[in-house]
């Protein structure tokens, strides 16, 4: 594990410039590194989700995540009341192993709490199950394919 980052700030995306930075992180991590087709990475939920952006002390974008809540979360989680969806968690390679991913998860959970959520659902890449388990998430259901990558649904009570 790398050294914890200092001087990192996490904020809610506010405006086109922030969104461009968040999309840049997702482009680097998902589209370039993991070869997810852009038409699958960027979806209709981007316009209505709350996005978080992690910035280094120099203003460089280091990570991002999004929160889907309300009617969209109900539709995506099978109608589970009080559940929000954490998604598109991405941390650039240089910032991995520093705890930034966990900070982003906790920030999304807090946003969910503020919106009345009692539970968070996420769709984890199988290679990341241990990361989420360490944060209190429990896998449920079978492994499934999403964009050519094996995933499992995980949940955590808030």
TrEMBL record:
<dbReference type="Pfam" id="PF13673">
    <property type="entry name" value="Acetyltransf_10"/>
</dbReference>
<dbReference type="InterPro" id="IPR050832">
    <property type="entry name" value="Bact_Acetyltransf"/>
</dbReference>
<feature type="domain" description="N-acetyltransferase">
    <location>
        <begin position="8"/>
        <end position="158"/>
    </location>
</feature>
<keyword id="KW-0808">Transferase</keyword>
<protein>
    <submittedName>
        <fullName>GNAT family N-acetyltransferase</fullName>
    </submittedName>
</protein>
<keyword id="KW-0012">Acyltransferase</keyword>
<dbReference type="InterPro" id="IPR016181">
    <property type="entry name" value="Acyl_CoA_acyltransferase"/>
</dbReference>
<dbReference type="InterPro" id="IPR000182">
    <property type="entry name" value="GNAT_dom"/>
</dbReference>
